[in-house]
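Example 3.
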Amino acid sequence: MSSIFLWFLQILLVPILSPLGIGIINKLKAKLQKRQGASILQPYRNLSKLLHKDEVVSSDASWISYSAPFIIFGITLLVGASIPLLTTAIHLPSSDMFIIVGLFALETFFLALAGMDVGGAFGGFGSSREMTMSAFAEGAFVFSIAPLALIAGTTNLSLIVSGINTSYMHSLPSILLAFAGFIVVLLVEAKRYPFDNPDTHLELTMIHEAMLLEYSGKRLALMEWASANKLFIFVALAVNLFSPFGVTHGLDLQSILVSSVITLAGMVALYCIIAVIESTMAKLRFFRLPDLIFTALILDIVAIGLAL
Amino acid sequence: MNMSLSLAVIQVCVVLLFLTIIGLHVVKKNLSEAALYSLQSLTIVVLLIAPHLNDLSPDILAIAFLTLVVKVIFAPQFLRHMVLKNGFKFTSSTYANTPVTLLLIVGILGLVTSSIFAPLAMLAGGQHLTTSLVLAAILSSLLLVVNRKGAFSEVMGVLSLENSIVAFGILAGLEQSAVLQLGIIFDVSIWVIVATVFVPLVYQHIGSLDVTNMKKLRD
């Protein structure tokens, strides 16, 4: 009973907290640029504003444009509910790493379709770039979790978190290399610097925002919210998979509260690191991006080699 | 408790050392290479201290401090100054492109974890994984020297090779006396000073730091 309650709590927690992460990154970036910046609650206000606006939909839009935001948002909710966030005691079939990667690939597929659906030039090139990046990133994603799966002897993310504790010190080099690869995957999948600029619609180099140009109002809110959810999920995975000491394995309230505080503290730290990366790095040229993802892939392969 | 802490610190340092060498292979700017070398040297400073967390002697602290001053601050600053003064911000091209270079590094790691290098890896006892990574770092530094066409990158490769050998010495328990360590640090500082004098001279004479353009030097 309590595990079902926790599962529902996690379904709510991911979309409730995810805009806060974007707010933290934006606030810290503003501070690093010596600006006051908007409140960390600004992403909530933006979502609220969009949710109250009317929509303008192209006459060429098919069912894909109408349904893609709901599918994409739904996928991020499902993945958010499947990852080991509050406790590892909930073992869902959807917690398997291959299912998570598959669900994100499905999300990317619908995002790319939505970008191309109305036939706009910007949407088309955004989708093209998205699929180019995804072709590299999905493989790197699998390979970055594979060393942990090898060490724990399972592909279920909850069982990985509980199983990796026993041999953590022995496998530390492998885990650290996999973590380095995962951080690159995080930045690609969440469309952050140096892969994409999430702040503008004006750059010809944009990837994610190009696919959202035709959206407005409620559907744009869902797309932006789904993007925040995705970043939250990747940050939570980075914290709990690669440093699983704070995650509880039980269902008692006290240990779950302590575990949540530790996880959230780790996530805030990682959000701050992302903000620092975005403030100190320029966006890379598109043709340099595969090199960086390939480097992550190589780090993951080395990690797998050491974990074997 | 201290033993496990020291082991964890050593493992983190070795992984950072390996990552900096991957970084040296990937980055395209000379200033980034100098920054990565500084980070790599910092891991060496921590590696010098980490095995002796229980019994830190003044000798080790003095050597670590000197390494910090020479390799983390002095040498990267000299190299940085040289790059900014002469305006060669970007590295020259490589013989093998980035993916092939990275695959070669995977090959190197496969080689050092094979039975061929097992006697060397076993020198560190239970830490054979970290020793294998350090051996891979040594060979990857050599690859950097061989693969890059730019003289500056080759300088970085030699400095990185020296750091990797020091790391291997520490892990394998082949540490020498403080006097020898002092000698090595002195050699590195002199080497960096000589490099910062000669590299700009070569650049002014040849107009490039690409070693393929330096055939004139033979005449």
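Chain A has eleven helices and no strands. Residues 2-307 of chain A form one domain.
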